[in-house]
Recover the amino acids of this structure.
């Protein structure tokens, strides 16, 4: 059976169709725009994060930590260990990568590890010479910690796998050197030159990477750099990238090597996205605020027009809390309809925005407006609308409940 | 507390003793009721008459627990109600008191049937079907059996007042309070409404207290209590 308060609320509300439509429209807009802004803001942040994780992995281990005499003395003096930055010396690179890789097997969240040896080079095509960075990798390991497999735009990864002198070259670098798949290049490092064939061209979408990076087989890079052992860094991929800071801290403590999570490594870009989120959050809050003000206005108007009805209800035995509920139910009805229609409206606009062609490259690459579909955006939009509209509705609802029936009737009768 | 079926006709349904009420503030404060005492028995119809501003309506709202006295006591079916909290007074209104106001005060977005069912829905004494049956029976009794689904706005003034009477009787209250119930109606409708109130009240053994300016109606009541300057005279 429908509660009498809900029944009365519905009739009060539908009697003020225009005001109700205004409140409803504002709520629909508030919820819908909240969803759209969240979907688009998160969309760009999400693709940026995926791009970075696809290039550099979730954690990078580099530089061995060595305790100085000062910190060792502190540790040895008692059981108490005091970690102090000034008491730690960093030694460049990972001297025994295999030992670290073995130790990383104990970390449940680690999905893959790739030892990378990096060096500065000059790369020469038949057209020109460019400065670049070469990365010596074991292909199978690196495919587990990056999206290199999906980043190939020309050529085949298989050709690189089968050719010791194969090279994977970034799209921008390849264009600058006017290279195509199958062309040969000369790589010069530390005065030694060696010829490689372009097996494939990759494109990450991050221009700086595509402009400078060239992947070679690890033994070739060792030979060029005359470095028979060790690695510049270990690139780690995680099952849950969000846990990277905690995992990195543990790795640093256990492995005695500097471990940097992607959140710290890309802090400046992430700050930009955070600022963007705050800015859109403010805009969205204004929309929701307008919705709550519209609801306040509608209810305040109904309270003014329905004072006699309130007196009648009170004279029939309806309590103050019934009157409050009647007005909160009105807000609830608008919110319920507004939430459903607003969510559908938000989903529709999100879909439309996702179809807008928009060529973006620089820190990531996309050929259309990026949106994210996440139920949490819908839940947050509805929760925000419920919170703000109900707060705004409480004032007129309480005012209605405070009305004294005797005062109302006397005022009318006299 | 006695219910409507427990209190026998002739028993005191309402009693007030030495009621005082001030209205307004500061220099505008007026002593409207100056120690009014009164009692109403079931099955009896009482008329309170007097010039405008003498305190009739103020007394009626105090007796109906819509307002609180500044002094004195009000008992409803033997229970002291004048010093109780809002929740207790509201519950007593719903269970023991029916109101008929001069300006009908129907809820215009609702049909005649829904208006009559409104107090029953709150009290919750009857189930849905029983409520509707009783509302139809009451509307039949006031001659509106054919207009149960009409909205308040689709009824004439006399019809609205008859719906208001049916609504006031919906929960079988022991006390029916009517503030100028015929004040807004023509002679024919006035007689019809008064006859209805008195007939139904007599049938159901209710104490009826009505405030009126109409001497003919006052004359037809069981008792008439004239008021002047906040006290009963005679």
């Amino acid at each position: 059976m429908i509660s009498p308060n809900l029944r009365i609320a519905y009739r009060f509300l539908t009697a003020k169709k225009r005001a109700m439509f205004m409140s409803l429209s504002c709520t629909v807009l508030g919820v819908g725009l909240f969803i759209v802004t969240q979907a688009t803001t998160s969309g760009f942040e999400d693709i940026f994060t995926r791009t970075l994780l696809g290039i550099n992995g979730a954690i990078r281990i580099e530089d061995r930590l060595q305790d100085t005499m000062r910190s060792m003395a502190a540790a040895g003096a008692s059981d108490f260990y005091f970690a102090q930055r000034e008491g730690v010396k960093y030694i460049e690179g990972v001297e025994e990568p295999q030992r670290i890789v073995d130790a990383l097997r104990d970390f449940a969240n680690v999905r893959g590890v790739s030892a990378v040896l990096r060096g500065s080079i000059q790369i020469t095509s038949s057209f020109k010479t460019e400065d670049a960075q070469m990365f010596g990798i074991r292909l199978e390991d690196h495919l587990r910690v990056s999206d290199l497999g999906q980043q190939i735009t020309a050529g085949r990864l298989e050709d690189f796998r089968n050719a010791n002198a194969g090279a994977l070259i970034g799209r921008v670098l390849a264009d600058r050197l006017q290279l195509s798949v199958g062309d040969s290049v000369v790589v010069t490092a530390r005065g030694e030159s060696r010829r490689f064939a372009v097996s494939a061209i990759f494109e990450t979408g991050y221009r700086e990477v595509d402009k400078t990076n060239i992947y070679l087989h690890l033994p070739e890079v060792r030979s060029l750099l005359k470095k028979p052992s060790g690695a510049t860094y270990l690139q780690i991929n995680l099952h849950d990238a969000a846990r990277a800071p905690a995992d990195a801290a543990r790795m640093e403590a256990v492995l005695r090597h500097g471990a940097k999570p992607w959140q710290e490594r890309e802090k400046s870009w992430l700050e930009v996205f955070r600022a963007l989120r705050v800015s859109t959050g403010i805009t969205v809050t204004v929309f929701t605020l307008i919705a709550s003000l519209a609801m306040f206005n509608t209810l305040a108007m109904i309270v003014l027009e329905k004072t006699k009805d309130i007196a009648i209800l009170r004279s029939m035995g309806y309590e103050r809390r019934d009157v409050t509920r009647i007005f909160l139910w009105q807000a609830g009805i608008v919110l319920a309809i507004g939430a459903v229609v607003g969510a559908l409206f938000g989903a529709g606009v999100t879909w439309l925005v996702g179809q807008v062609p928009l060529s973006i490259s620089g820190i990531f690459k996309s050929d259309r407006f990026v949106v994210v579909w996440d139920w949490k955006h819908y839940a947050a939009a509805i929760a925000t609308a419920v919170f703000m509209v109900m707060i705004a509705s409480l004032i007129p609802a309480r005012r209605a409940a405070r009305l004294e029936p005797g005062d109302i009737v006397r005022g009318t009768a006299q | 507390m006695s219910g409507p079926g427990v209190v026998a006709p002739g028993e005191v349904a309402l009693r007030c003793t030495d009621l005082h009420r001030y209205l307004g503030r500061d220099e505008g404060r007026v002593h409207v009721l100056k120690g009014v005492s009164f009692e109403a028995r079931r099955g009896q119809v009482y008329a309170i008459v007097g010039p405008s501003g003498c305190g009739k309506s103020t007394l009626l709202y105090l007796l109906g627990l819509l307002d609180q006295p500044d002094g004195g006591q009000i008992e409803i079916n033997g229970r002291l109600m004048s010093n109780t909290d809002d929740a207790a007074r509201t519950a007593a209104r719903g269970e023991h008191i029916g109101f008929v106001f001069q300006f009908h005060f129907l809820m215009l977005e609702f049909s005649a049937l829904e208006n009559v069912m409104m107090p029953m829905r709150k009290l919750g004494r009857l189930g849905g079907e029983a409520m509707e049956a009783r509302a139809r029976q009451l509307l039949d009794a006031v001659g509106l059996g054919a207009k149960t689904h009409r909205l308040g706005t689709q009824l004439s003034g006399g019809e609205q007042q008859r719906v208001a009477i049916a609504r006031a009787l919906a929960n079988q209250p022991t006390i029916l309070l009517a503030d100028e119930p015929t004040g807004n109606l023509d002679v024919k409708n006035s007689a019809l409404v008064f006859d209805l109130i008195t007939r139904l009240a007599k049938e159901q053994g209710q104490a009826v207290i009505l405030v009126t300016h109409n001497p003919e109606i006052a004359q037809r009541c069981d008792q008439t209590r004239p008021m002047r300057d906040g006290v009963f005279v005679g």
